[in-house]
Specification:
Layout (H helix, E strand, L loop, with lengths): L1 H19 L1 H5 L2 H4 L2 E2 L2 E7 L46 E7 H12 L11 E13 L9 H15 L18 E21 L6 H21 L2 E9 L3 E4 L1 H6 L8 H15 L6 E8 L6 H18 L3 E6 L7 H9 L6 E6 L5 H9 L4
Parallel strand pairs: 5-6, 5-8, 8-9, 9-10
Antiparallel strand pairs: 1-2, 2-3, 4-5, 6-7
């Protein structure tokens, strides 16, 4: 029991450290690279447990001897000039934290509302609940009430029960134990489709911002949907679907035709994700450059007629680039100023990531 209590206290300390420096962890790209299934390795300063330090024997009692306030305790080094030492500095400890725990911390820090699913399709997950009863099992699952009933029934049947002296003593065959029953629990299903401009104006810094933000968006959505699927689209003047690694490592050049990504995203949704069955979250990240005003009008048309009526929410994140004009965001704001189904977020730099996540996830859709 003591070990379990210590483990719980340690996890509380780690959780507190992560909350304290949460903004640092949100923008810490190295951490995301250390994912292992449902765990992430979090670097935290090594935690030292408090301990007593004893002085030399027979050196006098507490407070005895000469000295002035501020003098160092015997044996402790005082600050000052000197040669470089060879002792280790502050150690960093890597701790495994589950994605669910990170999602909880993200939700607490940003005060995110719980998402209300709208799709009808569910993923069926098996769940064990101890609602049955049986004659065998461990003592920890002994059911006193059911055991008493069995003993009472046995004594009534045998005629040994005395109402004036109602003593019921269970014997071995009366004991009943709680047993698990497997039930099928529906979980809402969702798909998130990431689209990113990879034209020449989107540099490594901009892609790193998209990488970090999409990790935290995914972490929160996975907390809300156990059956989350993720798709990735990159585009310059043409669009194509890729895997996650390619999504964050591809460098292209040439012009930008945003409608190419929207057309491909529309095709994927129509062919694989019926809107009445799925919770759908498209996210598009760009520096705001587009080939022409005509293509922007086509994008607005697709948003109006297809995406916004059918998806839970469409997110557009504009990553600032010294090579990008940023015009696309202005055009979207002009066309959809009062439509909450389209969420627009400006991401000037890494420090803005946390606010942008709040922009995208703060509505609970």
């Amino acid at each position: 029991m003591g070990i379990l209590e210590d483990h719980r206290r340690f996890k509380d300390i780690i959780r507190g450290r992560i909350k304290q420096d949460f903004k640092k962890y949100v923008t810490h790209g190295e951490m995301i690279g250390k994912r292992e299934n449902d765990y992430v390795k979090i670097p935290v300063p090594q935690i030292e447990t408090p301990r007593f330090k004893y002085g030399k024997k027979q050196s006098g009692g507490v407070g005895q001897g000469e000295g002035q306030p501020g003098d160092s305790v015997d044996g402790e080094k005082q600050p000052g000039q000197g040669e470089a030492g060879d002792s280790p500095g502050q150690h960093v400890l890597e701790v495994d934290v589950t994605l669910d725990e990170l999602a909880d911390i993200l939700g607490e820090q940003l005060e995110l509302p719980k998402i209300e699913p709208r799709g009808n399709k569910n993923v069926e997950t098996l769940q064990n609940r101890y609602t049955g009863r049986g004659p065998v099992g461990p003592d920890s699952l002994r059911n006193f009430k059911e055991s008493y009933k069995e003993a009472l029934k046995r004594q009534l049947a045998a005629g040994t029960y005395n109402p004036d002296d109602p003593i019921v003593i269970p014997i071995r065959r009366d004991i009943r134990y709680r047993t698990p029953k497997t039930s099928v629990k529906p979980q809402a299903n969702a798909v998130v489709i990431y689209m990113m401009d990879v034209s020449g104006s989107m540099g490594d810094e901009q892609k790193e911002i998209v990488r970090l933000e999409s990790f935290w968006i995914n972490t929160w959505l996975k907390k809300n949907y156990k059956g989350l699927e993720t798709r990735f689209i990159i585009h310059d003047a043409a669009a194509k679907e890729v895997d996650e690694k390619t999504f964050f490592s591809t460098s292209e050049s040439g012009g930008t035709l945003i409608s190419s990504a929207y057309k491909l995203c529309k095709k994927i949704i129509e062919e694989e994700y019926p809107v009445n069955d799925w919770n759908i979250y498209p996210f598009h990240f760009s520096d705001g450059d587009n080939w022409s005003g005509e293509d922007t009008r086509l994008c607005v048309k697709m948003l109006t007629e297809f995406f916004l009526p059918k998806v839970n929410q469409f997110g557009y994140g504009q990553v600032e680039s010294k090579y990008g004009s940023g015009q696309f965001l202005k055009d979207l704001e002009k066309s959809f100023s009062s439509d909450e189904r389209l969420v627009i977020s400006r991401i000037e730099n890494k420090d803005r990531i946390l606010n942008s996540i709040k922009d995208f996830l703060g509505k609970g859709r």
